[in-house]
Amino acid sequence: MADLYVGLVHYPIYNKRMNVIAGAVTNFDIHDISRTCRTYNVQGYYIIHPLEVQKQIIDKILSYWQEGYGKVYNPDRADALSRVLWQPDIASAVQTIAERTGKQPYVVTTDARIYPNTVSYSFMRKQLQEGDRPVLLLFGTGFGIEAETMAKSDYILEPVYGPCDYNHLCVRSAAAIILDRLAGEPWWEKN
After folding, report:
1. Quick check: 112 and 168 in contact, CB under 8 A?
2. Is 98 within the bounds of a domain?
3. Which residues contact 141 (CB under 8 A, 6 or more apart)?
4. What DSSP character marks residue 73?
5. What is the pTM of this model?
6. Residue 2 · residue 126 · CB < 8 Å
7. Structural domain contains residue 150
8. Phi, psi dihedral angles at 139 (to 5 degrees)
9. Number of structural domains, the chain?
């Protein structure tokens, strides 16, 4: 299976007025998505934010759980957080993966909308299972990753749909559902 990486993009993203902004890092996103990433054997979880003050917040949270009392109190959390890295932008995350693996990763973004290069989960799962290039799966915070950045992606995954027309999952839920569809045990194929 190809190596899978996750990036949580805080810039460039949209706010509800569709202005491009930098969103704030949240403690929940660091903890919850890292645990999901660890469960699905994601090789690295990149928190992508250009501001140094946000990097300091990330470093403080990671330090507590990896070096301080938190590591003793909850070693499983320390294990999950060991795959979390800060990157100032998407290009840096791509470069880090290319240097680590020796191969240029596919950049795959997620969104609640359909685009010309939208692909199915089965297509992307096959790329992961049979491909030899790593995959960087990007999740946007706020109201999604900015359109110009989306257009540069190799692929965009189809939206996650429920049984109704409401489609606005929190990023932590979307990450769990999508990672299960791409890297989880295909229990639905066994029944």
Report:
1. yes
2. yes
3. 8, 9, 10, 13, 23, 29, 171
4. H
5. 0.95
6. no
7. yes
8. -115, 140
9. 1
